[in-house]
Amino acid sequence: MTQSFRDRIDLEMTVNGEEVELTVPAGRHLIDVLRLDLGLTGSHVGCEHGVCGACTLIVDGSAVRGCLTLAAQLQGCEVWTIEGLTEGGVIGDLQKAFVERNALQCGYCTPGMLASAKALIEADGVPSRETIREHMSGNYCRCTGYEAIVDAIETVARQRAGETEPQARSGATS
Amino acid sequence: MKASIGGYAQAETVAHAIALLGEAGGEGRILAGGQSLVAALNLGTSEGDMLIDIAGIAALRGVKLDGDRLVIGALTRHCDLVRDPLVGEHAPLFAKAAPLVAHDAIRNRGTIGGSLAYADPAAEYPACAIALDAAIILEGPDGTREIPARDFFTGLFETARAEGEILTAITVPKAQDGERHVIREGTRRAGDYALAGLAVVMRDGRHRIGAFGLGDRPLLCQGAMAALDQGDVDGAVTALAQDVDPPSDAQASASYRRHLAGVLLRRIAADLGVAP
Ligand SMILES: Cc1cc2nc3c(=O)[nH]c(=O)nc-3n(C[C@H](O)[C@H](O)[C@H](O)COP(=O)(O)OP(=O)(O)OC[C@H]3O[C@@H](n4cnc5c(N)ncnc54)[C@H](O)[C@@H]3O)c2cc1C
Ligand code: FES
Ligand code: FES
Hints:
- Chain B: This is Xanthine dehydrogenase family protein subunit M.
- The structure holds two protein chains of two kinds.
- By secondary structure, chain A is α+β, with helices and mostly antiparallel strands.
- In chain A, 35% of the residues lie in helices and 16% in strands.
- Chain A has a five-stranded mixed beta sheet with strand order 2-1-5-3-4.
- Chain B is α+β, with helices and mostly antiparallel strands.
- Chain B folds into three domains: 5-52, Uridine Diphospho-n-acetylenolpyruvylglucosamine Reductase, domain 2; 62-173, Uridine Diphospho-n-acetylenolpyruvylglucosamine Reductase, domain 3; 180-272, Enolase-like, domain 1 (2-Layer Sandwich).
- Chain B has helices spanning 14-24, 37-43, 78-83, 85-90, 92-97, 104-107, 112-118, 124-131, 149-152, 222-229, 233-243, 254-272, and strands spanning 7-10, 28-31, 50-53, 63-66, 69-73, 135-140, 143-148, 153-155, 158-159, 166-173, 180-186, 196-203, 206-212, 219-220.
- In chain B, strand 8 and strand 9 (158-159) form a beta hairpin.
- In chain B, helix 10 packs antiparallel against helix 11 (233-243) and helix 11 (233-243) packs antiparallel against helix 12 (254-272).
- Bound molecules: flavin-adenine dinucleotide (FAD) and FE2/S2 (inorganic) cluster (FES) (2 copies).
């Protein structure tokens, strides 16, 4: 290895509002840093190549794939995981709606689902069900069949916009 | 699987990045958004790379006008292309293509330069680039050069970029009055790479068609373009089947992709108001 290239990186970033400083292997991605170095196991790893969305979290206000982001690239960044989002109460309504609608079963996809849903609701006011489906298409759930997830997100988007609950839809499949 | 890399360095300027590429002596690999590269590292398909992180180079960011051309910096992200006003006005094809690329979380980090340099034959931007008659700007130890997009893509994941060069920007002729840009693709699921897709530019009554997912590289479909210029949609669909050379794989057969290309072309012709 030449002088300019390093195999370990001194990293400073903010995780869930707390500043952290650590030295990590240069090839380590964000999820491994969170899970293995910081003990934050709420962020899950499914495919590790960007397809399943289980690792989705919030970096500098945007949803990103933790498995496709090298920690070395996050110098000075602000990271929010499901632990911090939960403690901060910012997605309490989404979490409640997920539980009420049975939008999770095993829960493996849920942290990523919530991060993606948070980004959508904050960006797009009250999205249509089609927009919700399109946006959430990068998050796989092998349990629920998605209908309940779309319901939960739609419910919260409407609540946040001050609208009342949508009529219960019998047999709607859109 | 943990990515096993040879080393990591952050480049501060383009010249610095070029120097680092030289220092890495053949093992150097540019890291931009990481949305293809980190996936490859995780899968272990790429090992021992000396990563040169260019994400912090300010000069590679942003979109600007230069005379009658639009210059899009290599680090412009997919999510920027969707909402950048200059892109929307002067190269709307990219603004229409960007939402078709992957998913929100990937679009927030992936870059146009990364997509062009990676040269996935099913990617949208390379086909847009040839349809727009764009040029790719490369910078290396011997200076800067510009290559027409149609000569840049040389094969499956292969480009004319030399090992020591960095893709710094893509330049596109500004859209003229009345120019039309359309992109359509067929995918199994939203956000997937396309099974087949077409990016079409109608300029001064002439058409340029870039095909993706329909060959080992993006293809300029000259037979179909000539027929479409004559308003002959049936002829264009027939010619398109000859212009493309799609692969057969687990996703779809070559004959299905060819059929799909024809369907997309008819829809695009209707979008553009070309008589059937
Ligand atoms: C689940 C998933 C779905 C996807 N779907 C699509 C899709 O539908 N359509 C599509 O087009 N793409 C898709 N992609 C890929 C995505 O568009 C990537 O963002 C893009 O291909 C690479 O851009 P990047 O900035 O992330 O590049 P990186 O991953 O950082 O780099 C990719 C390659 O390009 C090289 N490189 C990058 N920048 C430069 C430069 N400036 N100069 C020289 N070399 C450079 C790198 O060395 C590397 O070899 C998908 C990715 C994932 C994970
Ligand atoms: S683990 Fe990151 S997308 Fe599947
Ligand atoms: S709840 Fe099991 S994967 Fe979604």
